[in-house]
Amino acid sequence: MGALKVGGVGEFLREQRRSAQLSLRQLADAAGVSNPYLSQIERGLRKPSADILQQLAKALRISAETLYVQAGMLDARERDELEVPAAIIADPSINERQKQVLIQIYESFRKENAAARAEDADGPEDADGPENDDAARAGTHTDTETDTDTTTHTDTGTDGERHTRPVPVREETGNDDHR
């Protein structure tokens, strides 16, 4: 009877364990699983549950989402959406309130960007190009010159909304050195 070969999660776990300089027994103890069970996972004979993968990830100090992708439980796009909150939660240098605030800010930016992408898909293309939209949605600002003596300044406010306001154009001096 041949091996089940459960994706590359077993091989990946073995590589992570070795790079963490842990023995099979040390990782098994840290993750709360038996030594033979972990050995079978590494050899591709057993398929670990999401809970076991989470315990292994914690013991290895890596993202559980990374293991979920390796095991085929999560696609890479979903992993990307979860990695930032997971990194925030795992950071011991910030307190719980700060973690919650950071996650809320991150989620509000993601929602705003998704809404803007949907709006862009439904509406006509902006004349100033998508690169300016990306900069505006990322919380930076965009200056767009018009045919008048003003420029449009777009940024994302603290309320998460995009704001556009006219700004007078500075005269060109021919000297780009602003010391």
Automatic annotation (TrEMBL):
InterPro entries listed in its UniProt record: Cro/C1-type_HTH, Lambda_DNA-bd_dom_sf, TransReg_Diox_bact_type
Keywords: DNA-binding
Domain HTH cro/C1-type intervals: 13-67
Basic and acidic residues bias: start-end ranges: 134-144, 159-179
One GO molecular-function entry: DNA binding
Pfam families, alphabetized: HTH_3 (PF01381)
Biased composition annotated in UniProt, kind: Acidic residues: 121-133
Gene3D superfamilies: lambda repressor-like DNA-binding domains (1.10.260.40)
Region feature (Disordered): 114-179
PROSITE patterns linked: HTH_CROC1
Entry's Gene Ontology cellular component terms: cytosol
Protein name, per record: Helix-turn-helix
Source organism of the structure: Actinacidiphila rubida
